[in-house]
Design goal:
- By secondary structure, the chain is α/β, with parallel strands linked by helices.
- It has two domains: 205 residues, 3-Layer(aba) Sandwich (Aldehyde Dehydrogenase, Chain A, domain 1), CATH 3.40.605; 110 residues, Aldehyde Dehydrogenase, Chain A, domain 2, CATH 3.40.309.10.
- Helices cover 40% and strands 14% of the residues.
- The strands form five sheets. The protein has a four-stranded parallel beta sheet with strand order 8-7-6-9, with helices on both faces. Strands 1-5-4 form a three-stranded mixed beta sheet.
- The longest helix has 21 residues.
- The N and C termini lie far apart (53 Å).
- It comes from Tolypocladium paradoxum.
- Pfam families: Aldedh.
- InterPro entries: Ald_DH/histidinol_DH, Ald_DH_C, Ald_DH_CS_CYS, Ald_DH_N, Aldehyde_DH_dom, Aldehyde_DH_Superfamily.
- This is Vanillin dehydrogenase.
- GO terms for molecular function: succinate-semialdehyde dehydrogenase (NAD+) activity.
Amino acid sequence: MSLVAMSASGTEAKEPVFTVPLFINGKEHHPEKTFDVVSPATGKVAHRCGASSVADAGAAVEAAAEAFKTWRKTTPTQRRDIFLKAAEIMNSRREELAGYMREETGAAKPWCDFNLNVATDILKDIAGRIPTLEGSFPAMMDPDTSGIIMREPYGVVLSVAPWNTPYILGTRSVAFPIAAGNTSVLKGTEAAPRTTFAIASVFHEAGLPNGVLNVIIHEPSAGAAVTSAIIANPPRQEDQLHGQYGCRAHHRGARWRESHADADLQLAADQCALGSFLHSGQICMGTERILVHKVIKKEFVDKFRASVEKIFPSSAEAPTLINSASVDKNKKLVADATRKRASVIFGNAEAQEISNTRLQPIAVDNMTPEMDL
């Protein structure tokens, strides 16, 4: 028997949709304007998120600037203990945190677990490094003079992190500045706001003082205005950008793979398959192109096909991408390449999947420079 909640009028009552708040000066902040966050795994609205305004962004910077006055004076051991506590809390809340990431990004459970494992290790590693921040008394050319080198925090740091590895890149983007005595405004991704908010929640629960870490998230159309306002704000001293989106050239050199004539072809095939299609290929250092010596090409291609099928079987549900626009873009790239005489050696870009955010792995051969791919 199923029970359905009914309103006083006799109609079915709907549960209120959760709204992800901003996090400013140690408190939740709920802007009037919100936007939908659609889960790529289900195609449905997972929740809503408060849309940061220019004024909200300014408030976050001001809160960070005020907190910097006292945070910069904390001792290394005080900061270390907060980081170790944050690592403990993140590990204890891993099922909850992984659930946010799965829902918002469509990531598989192993990728969520990997994110949380690495993020926890980052916190522990940085905690151990905090006491090593020190100055020095260098020898001077003039024996009658002396010098002191002091390491001082900058101030307010703007951190920007993407959705593809949100716990790793989000945690890293704020942890290093905060560990050194800075304060931070984390500009989270609109694709995974609850995941981003969870990072601040972990730090706050660990005892990080109000204002040291602030989180703002804006709708896509407000990106330029909000970001420009933060950069122009006088208390902000430094910027950190993490991830491939918007700074893709930084990773371009790492996205090629080569297989030489004397290579272990099975190992190469397995690693190229993982590098290409793990997390639906949405990893900053993911493999985009494979260069193979002509002597071993046929054997490698056969092994590569088998490796992809073994790791990402075509009989299973197709991997999930962050949104349907990403699927459409990939299909157009493959269509352009095949029109210009490339050949598809694995997958079918025209296959109908259970949702418009899914796409089976596709590999293309005989590429030429005039192809968009």
